[in-house]
Design brief:
Radius of gyration: 22 Å
Number of helices: 4
Structural class: alpha+beta
Largest sheet: 5 strands, antiparallel
Order of helices and strands: HEEEEHEEHEEH
Length: 168
């Protein structure tokens, strides 16, 4: 752990204030010591990370390139929905969120023709990816409200069942 701590301090791939993801856990780095790194999660829990994990696992540094990150929310609509209306609704919702950056502007992707739905992704940028789940939740609430107001249906799995009778 101590040798790993020295590597981290010399390499400077992680700094205090960075948002990191390691083994599925996300936290903002509070302190880097020789043996451990301390980070706080979005739930205000302190992670004490043995430094050797940096060398033996894949580490995602969400903020090494700066504080801006690209995030998204996926949504499916029923077949027959007006896809241009869906696109307009999603863009308006993302643009109205205070945490979503104006530049680069949010984008809507039509991602798939799935079994029971037409799938979309609204992609947007944030300056504070540590708060992403709250922004994503707000967007989902607004999508549900706007879809109800505009008669856009959310899909549910559907199957056709054919019954054949045998003639004796």
């Amino acid at each position: 752990d101590i040798i790993s701590g020295i590597f981290i301090l010399v390499d400077q791939s992680v700094h205090v204030g960075d948002i990191i993801e390691l083994e599925g856990k996300v936290g903002r780095v509070l302190e880097i010591r020789l043996r451990t790194t301390r980070a706080v999660t979005i739930d205000n829990k302190v992670l004490v990370i043995p430094n050797h994990l940096y060398l033996t696992n894949i580490l995602f540094n969400w903020t090494e390139n700066g504080t801006e990150t690209r995030e998204s929310v996926d949504v499916g609509v029923a077949y027959g929905s007006d896809v241009e209306l869906v696109k307009k609704i999603l863009l308006n919702i993302a643009k109205a969120q205070p945490a979503v950056l104006k530049s680069p502007a949010p984008k809507v992707l039509f991602t798939d023709f799935a079994d029971s739905s037409l799938n979309f992704k609204i992609a947007f940028s944030l300056n504070n990816s540590f708060e992403v789940r709250f922004t994503q939740s707000n967007i989902r609430f607004e999508i549900d409200k706007a879809f109800r107001e505009n008669d856009v249906s959310l899909p549910f799995p559907q199957r056709d069942v054919h019954v054949y009778s045998q003639k004796n």
